[in-house]
Amino acid sequence: MLDFNLFPSLDIVEGKALTSRSAIDFTMNKNSIKDIIGDPLDVVDYYFESGAKWVHIVDLDAASGIGNNINLIIKTIKHIDSKMNTQICGGIRSKYNLEKYIDAGCSRVNISSMIFEQPLLCDELFKKHRDKIAVALDVSHKNSKYKLATRGWNKLQGDLWNVIEWLDKSGCPRYVVTDIERGGMMNHPNFTLLEQVIAKTQTPIVSGGGVTSEQDITRLKHLGTEGSVLGQVIHTQRHQLERFIQYAQKLNKNEPVQSRFI
C-alpha cells in the first residue's frame, strides 16, 4: 500500500491565510468576518516545521471570481523551494494560469470548472502534464443525486458518476474528492461517498478534508486513499498537525499506533 500523505491547507483570501470555514463562508457570501490565521509565508513555514511534505494552497478569491492571489502563491512556491510539495487549486480556468503555476515549480494543480467549460483542453492537459494535474471533485448531494460544485462552490452542474466515467476515459491522473456540505465543519470525511467513488474508478484519490481524529486517518488509509487535506482542525487546533503527521508516518511504517478522538 502506498504512503498516506497529509495536505495541510493554506486558504488565501485577499492575501491572508484564513481558517477553512471562514474562507468558505466569506467567498460564498455567508459571512463577512475573516478569521485570519496569519501571513501565508509564516503559515507554510509552520507546516514545514511540523513535518508536512505537502501544502494544499487554495486561492478563494480566484475560485469565487472576485480577484486572485496568483503572485502571492507563486511567491509562496518559490519560498518553499524544494522543501515541500505544493498542490494548488481555486479558480484555475485557463491553460495560461495552470502552466504559470507549473513553470513556477508547483507539484500539482487541481482544476474543476475547466472540465465543464473546456473539456477538450483538459484532455490535452492530462496528456501533457500527467501527474501534475488533478481534478477536484467537489460534491453536493441534492435530490438523491451527486452534483459537482464549481465556481467557488456557487454553481452545481453535472452528474458525478458520468463525469468520473468521462474523466477516466480522458486519462485524468487523480481526483481530490470533497463533500462540500462538510467543508470546514470538522465532521469527519464522507466515507460513504469515498467508498462509492473508489468502487467506481481505479484512479488515485485524495480525500478533500473533514479529518477530525486519528481514527479518520486510519480509515482513509485502509480505504485506499492517497491522503487527505487538513483544514479547519489544524487552523483552530494547531497542535493537531504535528500529531497527525507523526501518526500517519507510523501507519505508513506499519508501526503500532494508539489513536485518540479529539
TrEMBL record:
A Pfam family reported for this protein in Swiss-Prot or TrEMBL: His_biosynth
MF-aspect GO terms: 1-(5-phosphoribosyl)-5-[(5-phosphoribosylamino)methylideneamino]imidazole-4-carboxamide isomerase activity
Keyword Isomerase: yes
BP GO annotations: L-histidine biosynthetic process; L-tryptophan biosynthetic process
Keyword annotations: Amino-acid biosynthesis, Cytoplasm, Histidine biosynthesis, Isomerase
Catalysed transformations (reactions): 1-(5-phospho-beta-D-ribosyl)-5-[(5-phospho-beta-D-ribosylamino)methylideneamino]imidazole-4-carboxamide = 5-[(5-phospho-1-deoxy-D-ribulos-1-ylimino)methylamino]-1-(5-phospho-beta-D-ribosyl)imidazole-4-carboxamide
Residues in the signal sequence: none
Top-rank EC class of the record's enzyme: isomerase
Entry annotated with the keyword Coiled coil: no
EC number: 5.3.1.16
Localization terms from the record: Cytoplasm
GO cellular component terms given for this protein: cytoplasm
Pathway where this protein functions: Amino-acid biosynthesis; L-histidine biosynthesis; L-histidine from 5-phospho-alpha-D-ribose 1-diphosphate: step 4/9
Family: Belongs to the HisA/HisF family.
Record protein name field: 1-(5-phosphoribosyl)-5-[(5-phosphoribosylamino)methylideneamino]imidazole-4-carboxamideisomerase
Source species of the chain: Vibrio qinghaiensis
